[in-house]
Amino acid sequence: MRAQFVLSEIGVGLRRNLTMTFAVVVSVALSLALFGGALLMREQVSTMKDYWYDKVNVSIFLCSKSDVTSTPKCAKGAVTAEQKKQIEDDLHKMDVVDTVTYESADQAYKHYQDQFGDSPMASNITPDQMQESFRVKLHDPKKYKVVATAFAGRDGVQSVQDQRSILDNLFQLMNGMNVAALFVMALMLIIALMLIVNTVRVSAFSRRRETGIMRLVGASGFYIQMPFIMEAAFAGLIGGVLACVMLLAGRYFLIDGGLELQSKLNLIDFIGWDAVFTKLPLVLAIGLLMPAVAALFALRKYLKV
């Protein structure tokens, strides 16, 4: 009987405040979708870092004849065979180094033509303008400075470059987008909480006579508050379900279908469906508990008799 009464009161409350309930559902859905999207974006950035940082190299560019007059670091002349041998031996002795690959000027020219052969400048580049280099793969890419400190400024070395620094700009941009999404999510969450509180207040005010009678006949505070809390929790749960649908649809249309980023950007290691599914229970739990807790605090004042 009590359960039937609570359910009937929930239905009455939802019908009386249908417009505000709809606004709560939409705001909760959008805020939780942004929350889930921010979590997935953070995981995507982490996945991309692991994928790309494992592939980046430290490049030690050697002085060529064309660098002698144009680059102060190569003023002593082009790199000699002895200097190349010494650099390679020293690299193999370093604990942080995984592999060392030598690239000649001809190989560098061939790679350049393969990558940029269609560009207008490609016809103006000759093999003698390309630099010899050592491509160094590290056990831990974060220890780039160990190599840079050891070889920057050495005779025969024109520069030491870390490919990781190029990727850092991309990851900083993605992290900035993630922070922006979290900011919008927080704003939407505040709006959702305000709507929930106002909806509960209106519902409590419209039924103040019934709740007053229930209090006078000895009904417990929890029994009186339960329909209002359940109304808010039900609206929040619907919003959470819609947020989950949006996350699933976003993953499908952005990566698998629609834009088909998975096939167009095959160099990016996208997060899988398992990453999305693991976030859904958290989104549903927040969608259910957040409105219920907000309603509980709002009812402390408005259900006093």
UniProtKB/TrEMBL annotation:
Keyword Membrane: yes
Assigned protein family: Belongs to the ABC-4 integral membrane protein family. FtsX subfamily.
Record keyword Cell cycle present: yes
Entry membrane topology: Multi-pass membrane protein
Stated name of the protein: Cell division protein FtsX
Domain FtsX extracellular as annotated: residue spans: 56-160
GO BP, one annotated term: cell division
Gene3D superfamilies: 3.30.70.3040
Transmembrane segments: 21-41, 179-200, 232-255, 275-299
Keywords carried by this UniProt record: Cell cycle, Cell division, Cell membrane, Membrane, Transmembrane, Transmembrane helix
Source organism, top-level taxon: Bacteria
Record Pfam families: FtsX, FtsX_ECD
InterPro entries: ABC3_permease_C, FtsX, FtsX_actino, FtsX_ECD
Compartments (UniProt record): Cell membrane
Residue span(s) of domain ABC3 transporter permease C-terminal: 183-303
Role, per record: Part of the ABC transporter FtsEX involved in cellular division.
Subunit annotation: Forms a membrane-associated complex with FtsE.
